Amino acid sequence: MAAAAEEEEVSGGRPGTGRGNGKGEAEGVLTAPPPPQEPPAAPRLRDTPEDISLEAAANAIALHPARALLAAGDVDGDVYLYGYSCLPGDTQQLWSSGHHLKSCRDVAFSPDGQRLFTVSKDKAIHILTVEDGRLETRIAKAHSAALNCVLPIDQHLLATGDDGGELKVWDLRKGEAILESRQHEEYISAMAVDGNKKILLTASGDGTMGVFNIKRRRFELLSEPQNGDLTSVALLKRGKKVACGCSEGTIYLFNWNGFGATSDRFALRAESVDCMVPITESIVCTGSLDGVIRAVNILPNRVLGCVGQHLGEPIEQLAVTPDGQLLASCAHDQKVKFWDISSLGSMVVDEYRKKKKRGGPLKALTSKAPGSGEDFFADLREEEEATGEAATGSDSDDSD
């Protein structure tokens, strides 16, 4: 009996022993609280969004006027919309459109950001909704030649230029062209419009800049031809200056209302100026056949340095975010890259020219731009400013 009682006592458990039934365990054991959990570390922000890899080389890119969205059109005729972010892994494709039959040559957002305009070698203009990429309007055979560039003027007017040198300005409310003019002998490469939406400027492969009056719906004049194709056009100095990039590596400057002849020229030590985008009232970024993106100050004319590169691959187009903090570029390497250009807005260029030692590498202006002479930039020399600023019969006003 004693043994049985002992066995019963052991098996039944005693309060506070922690053995036996769950009731005794719950009531008698003091357990330590779990250690506090540290909150997960926030993802480290990158200086720039991650590169975007495409299935084919992009001819054109555009950045949304208000949101972190990038549109790209490639040589296969496909159009893509991406959301970009400095958070790792947050840059992603939102939609794609394959409506063009041939290479997509240019893309542009409407001023309100709700529509995307695309033009193609197939001679068609497409208007897509930004939200879902739905084809809203298609203007087939908009031109008699392959389309090359597109520029929204305002909410209702759209300009297009083709390979044959013809310009058309469309009234989207009517669905028809209100201005048609073939003044250039070669393709129209780029266009720009003044702040009053009155004067439209065109750059052409025939080396001339065209001037068109949108309000009066007429052609005004052509500039004298330059040496090489004009590839780009931009307004600077609060509209007082117009800069045109040239395939020969020169930037030509015109005074506003003095479009017939150049007022200055600046020869970069570069293979070409294939694309150009204004960053401030005095600074532009240029893309070249050598894959280098240069920052250039206009009046005084200086090459400030290198923003970045697509290693040896020709750059097709550049685009800048509305806040001027990021630059996007596309090239033949099938990549879209982003560059931090926030420091360019605060750069001040002294008009006094310091004699520089020739043979040095381009100054690196971003953390992603190699600044060592031991890399690709070792053979890139500081531009010879004297060559660029010496212009015969210059009548420019260097003031802002």
UniProtKB/TrEMBL annotation:
Q: What SMART domains does the annotation carry?
A: WD40
Superkingdom classification of source = Eukaryota
* Gene3D superfamilies per the UniProt record, alphabetical: YVTN repeat-like/Quinoprotein amine dehydrogenase
In the record for this protein, the WD repeats are positioned at 140-180, 315-349
The record's Pfam families line, in alphabetical order, gives: WDR55
Give GO terms for biological process: rRNA processing
Annotated localization: Nucleus, Nucleolus
Q: Which InterPro entries does the record cross-reference, listed alphabetically?
A: WD40/YVTN_repeat-like_dom_sf, WD40_repeat_CS, WD40_repeat_dom_sf, WD40_rpt, WDR55, WDR55/POC1
Q: Which GO terms describe its cellular component?
A: cytoplasm; nucleolus; nucleoplasm
Q: Where is this region: Disordered?
A: 1-46, 356-375
Please verify whether the record's keywords include Repeat. yes
Q: Where is the composition biased (Gly residues)?
A: 13-23
Q: Which residues fall in a compositionally biased region of kind Acidic residues?
A: 1-10
Could you list this entry's UniProt keywords, alphabetically sorted.
Answer: Nucleus, Repeat, rRNA processing, WD repeat
Q: What exactly does this protein do?
A: Nucleolar protein that acts as a modulator of rRNA synthesis. Plays a central role during organogenesis.
**Similarity section:** Belongs to the WD repeat WDR55 family.
Q: What is this protein called?
A: WD repeat-containing protein 55
Q: Which gene encodes it?
A: WDR55
